[in-house]
Amino acid sequence: xxxxxxxxxxxxxxxxxxxxxxxxxxxxxxxxxxxxxxxxxxxxxxxxxxxxxxxxxxxxxxxxxxxxxxxxxxxxxxxxxxxxxxxxxxxxxxxxxxxxxxxxxxxxxxxxxxxxxxxxxxxxxxxxxxxxxxxxxxxxxxxxxxxxxxxxxxxxxxxxxxxxxxxxxxxxxxxxxxxxxxxxxxxxxxxxxxxxxxxxxxxxxxxxxxxxxxxxxxxxxxxxxxxxxxxxxxxxxxxxxxxxxxxxxxxxxxxxxxxxxxxxxxxxxxxxxxxxxxxxxxxxxxxxxxxxxxxxxxxxxxxxxxxxxxxxxxxxxxxxxxxxxxxxxxxxxxxxxxxxxxxxxxxxxxxxxxxxxxxxxxxxxxxxxxxxxxxxxxxxxxxxxxxxxxxxxxxxxxxxxxxxxxxxxxxx
Length: 412
Ligand code: HEM
Prior knowledge:
Blueprint lengths: L4 H20 L3 H6 L6 H9 L4 E2 L5 E3 L2 H9 L3 E2 L25 H9 L5 H4 L3 H18 L3 E2 H6 L1 H11 L6 H11 L9 H27 L5 H11 L4 H32 L1 H9 L4 H11 L5 E6 L3 E3 L2 E3 L4 E5 H4 L35 H18 L4 E2 L4 E2 L8 E3 L1 E3 L2
Helix pairs in contact: 7-9, 7-17, 9-13, 10-11, 11-12, 11-13, 13-15, 13-17, 15-17
The structure holds protoporphyrin IX containing FE (HEM).
Protoporphyrin IX containing FE (HEM) binds next to helix 13 and helix 17.
Organism: Streptomyces boncukensis
Keywords: Heme, Iron, Metal-binding, Monooxygenase, Oxidoreductase
GO molecular function: heme binding; iron ion binding; monooxygenase activity; oxidoreductase activity, acting on paired donors, with incorporation or reduction of molecular oxygen
């Protein structure tokens, strides 16, 4: 047994038992952490307990849209502890944007913005169309039932992100395999074996990106890494910051977009009249992306830490008090969205969904992700108008990322 293994195993087992126990006693947040097939009734229970409630797990929890929005924009809260210490669960992202508080976050985000912003997203449309078209050609050529996740939804964002970030063709298979091993990190409650495999994968990913950065330095192209490398030479950015920053982008942009496409198609097939409406009116594809982000968002919750003692919705949070924001619940808050449990691709959502967060950590890839999903929905309904379910789905087992591993479908 490795040093510390016994203690870590015991700690993880204790945590799992504790959560199970609290869930059995009816705590809705503990129930969410247990990754139920359908978390939405538990979010309703969270909201029924007030705008903010203290879970028996220790965190303060909200599914209230207005409060969630305020919390995400509140500068008295951050993503690290008040003394700047990182949380153990975000170990791989400690130097990425998502794991940084101001002033580091402000500087890193400014550096990244020219390489990833809403303006550049539109330019990707022809390339995204081409990738979707090629993937559907392959699916139709096979002429048999297929797993929508592996045959289509996973392929699209990985191809786009690899081009955007500048992952050379010959490193892409490695990148894909390693990132699959990192995703359990997003699942929160993990086993000892998963922590070991994830740690090893993070190290391999870092090594891979160190190599890619060296390649791009020697032979710059029109991509994110090539544009950021000169900043290291100028002294604006350190190598210790560049590596996690560029490693994080493909992870942030693929696991999420994959599930926006998957969850959207699942909702459309569960509501055949909505599928038919899209077949007849392909211009509604952007609306499908927006409604899926509201109705079944790929990222279901965010966490924030109080950097000072604060009063919030009748509660007093101490320094380092932890807030869990149930986005899946906030996006179904009836105060903001009438008839929130109905999937309606013609709904006028405006800027109200919190699926990409809000405030300083607002997703930098939101426009690109929406474009990818829009083109995907348009292409699938146009070329496979009789798409149908062909077997039971298997979910990915995370309370943060909601999506599927297996989604069997048939083209006719
Ligand atoms: C449907 C797809 C996507 C969803 C649902 C999503 C969601 C999110 C959310 C919720 C956050 C902030 C989390 C928090 O506040 O704690 C975030 C941050 C981020 N996302 Fe996305 N994302 C998606 C796609 C992408 C894509 C395609 C990219 C890159 C090309 C990307 C890059 C980023 C980056 C760099 C951040 C960090 C921003 C910061 O901390 O300042 N995301 N995303």
